[in-house]
Amino acid sequence: MGPLIETISAMPSIPDNSDKYKEYNVQWQQWKLAAKAAINQVQQWPPSAQTRHVQNTLEMLIGSEKTIAAHAETDIEAYISAIFYAHPLATMEEVFDTNKRLSVLFAKGPYYPTIISQLLRGDLYGALENCWSMDWWLLAHFTDLLRLSPLYSNLLPALQFTGREGQYIQARMWFALNYANYLLKYDITRNCAFEYMITCGDRGRTMLVESVKQIPLGDKIALELLQHYYEQGGMKDAANRFFEILAVRSIEEKDFLGALHYYCLSNNRVKVEHTFELALVDYAESGQLAELDSLKDKYDPLLNGERAQFFFQFAEMRKLYMSNKKQEASAALRQLLIAETSPLEFLPIVFLEGLCLLEDGSLWFNAEDIEHFKACIQDLEDTDAEEGYSVLEKYMIQRDYESTANIRTVKSTFIDMIRLTLDRYPVS
What we know:
Helix 1 runs parallel beside helix 3 (about 50-60), helix 17 (about 270-285) runs parallel beside helix 19 (about 305-320) and helix 23 runs antiparallel to helix 25 (about 405-425). The chain is built from 25 helices and two strands. It is about 70% helix and about 0% strand. The chain has a domain at about 305-428. The protein starts with a helix and ends with a helix. By secondary structure, the protein is an all-alpha fold.
């Protein structure tokens, strides 16, 4: 046992200070020569278990890859032993080469490499693949850890994937965004999804904008949180895009109140006006007038457009009439019919909704009013049928009027009916 004890005692320690590496390397080379001489001495001993034990130990101490592979229980144990004993000052590239050779020597049947063993062999792709098969969370964070390593941080930029637009995406961003997309599917993890996205630069911000399409309109918490990220990041254009998407989805669900809320947040006056128009068309088709009064106080400056004012006046007229306030309802009807800003395509509906007031005979209107109404009817008659009466056709079909009649028949019937009513009105 003497040669073994002497060799171990003389083995130089790896210095903490890199300035002493050169001196250490000289000492280590000299020690290695002495260790090989000790091995030669042991080989002269009579064969026995003790002789084999001493010889194997000495061979492992000088880094014999064959002996290390033969006695290691795991590939990782073999790799680390070779790094420590055979190449204590080796570069990582040399370590990778050594461990690749060891993986061949160590093979003792079916071999299933672990993430650690793949990294020790420099098999970055294999390690990432192994993470992929285990957990997206591990994969997303594994690349973060690799960035902390001087060696792997140099390799990572070369590891890229192709995005939908054909552009290359670096591994860390690719994995983080894919994991975020997975988290976006579940209510309780959407917040985490947003957190991953905002760490991925412009691509993450783009995904943050598009993610709104995957969030149910009913998930107000997630939507408010997403809005918070836009505002916090100074992403004004993204926030407006976010509001636009939510508004479109709200319209698809006939939620005109929600659509107007989002269009007002994006300060889109044109879309606000168009939404009021859609709400009126929906009333013609469904018979249900959207309740939009709650918007007045909150977004008043954005609700002064022609369509918006017409909608509110029309809703007020209906509300007054249903409350049996006929005189006030008549005043609202007069205002709708004489206002130059009232959209012509919706006036037929106003006439039909106000027909009960025109037929009442309670002298709500004077001769000047009736003449103005007749002039309005003349304008409607002169209007192209397709443009001015498509909404009226929807209105009449919904209310079980003759649905098989063509639009020109609808027009002539309407004109004749209103003219007859106005001619019979008892003006003083």
